[in-house]
Recover the amino acids of this structure.
């Protein structure tokens, strides 16, 4: 197994405690160790009883609620997610945006490697890597990060337009719009793969996400009405799926 215990034994169980019982965070009860097969570096997520601050806590895979039907917040991705949460926290604590960005880029790569070693399907691992990487660029890359995300958004628009022109029809324009985002992504060099994955995956799966979000929205409204009629607090219908402040 790719993940190990402190005494270098295969990680047979991931020991977590939900803190508090109604919260969204989990306390790591035993350390998790991972040796990256690419760089050979040893990573370790400490148990809560040996850590301070926010170390030793995890929210597992930070998958938005509407996407839980596509990618669960736990499963084969749990151990990589626990490790990634720890590494992300360490990057945040560096206090230098450039250093944090460099650290996170490597940590996100390790996250993708660990997902694959845990048997997470290739597409799912690629999408999870792309999402955490997009958040990394937005957080630490400054204006360049926002420019990258803006280009992704424009690329999605171009791909949607390609479908429209393919139906009209105007196949040559549709083809041009189809390949334009990939060619434009090359400008980002080392980040080109990220731009391509984000752009084409959002264009392909975005409609499914919208439908899922709409369905969840309808269900939450019905839940809220029932709570209100019954004399309860309508806010309770969203608390289980949001991140409340528990200090």
């Amino acid at each position: 197994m790719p993940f190990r215990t402190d005494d270098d034994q295969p990680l047979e169980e991931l020991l977590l405690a939900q803190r508090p019982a109604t919260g969204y965070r989990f306390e790591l009860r035993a350390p998790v160790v991972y040796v990256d097969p690419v760089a050979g570096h040893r990573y370790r997520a400490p148990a809560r009883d040996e850590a301070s601050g926010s170390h030793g806590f995890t929210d597992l895979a930070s998958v938005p609620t509407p996407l839980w039907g596509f990618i669960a917040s736990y499963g084969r991705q749990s151990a990589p997610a626990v490790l990634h949460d720890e590494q992300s926290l360490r990057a945040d604590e560096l206090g230098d945006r450039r250093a944090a960005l460099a650290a996170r880029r490597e940590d996100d790569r390790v996250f993708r490697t660990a997902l694959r070693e845990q048997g997470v399907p290739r597409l799912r691992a690629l999408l999870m890597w792309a999402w955490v990487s997009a958040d990394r660029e937005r957080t630490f890359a400054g204006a360049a990060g926002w420019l990258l995300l803006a280009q992704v958004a424009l690329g999605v628009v171009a791909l949607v337009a390609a479908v429209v022109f393919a139906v009209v029809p105007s196949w040559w324009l549709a083809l041009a719009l189809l390949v334009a985002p990939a060619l434009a992504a090359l400008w980002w060099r080392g980040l080109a793969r990220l731009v391509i994955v984000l752009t084409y995956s959002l264009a392909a799966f975005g409609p499914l996400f919208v439908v899922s979000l709409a369905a969840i929205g309808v269900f939450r409204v019905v839940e809220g009405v029932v709570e209100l009629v019954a004399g309860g607090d309508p806010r309770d219908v969203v608390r289980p799926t949001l991140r409340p402040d528990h200090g």
Remarks:
- The chain has a mean pLDDT of 91.
- The beta strands are 3-4, 16-18, 26-28, 32-35, 42-45, 57-58.
- DSSP finds six helices and six strands in the chain.
- The helical segments are 78-92, 97-117, 122-140, 143-167, 171-185, 192-229.
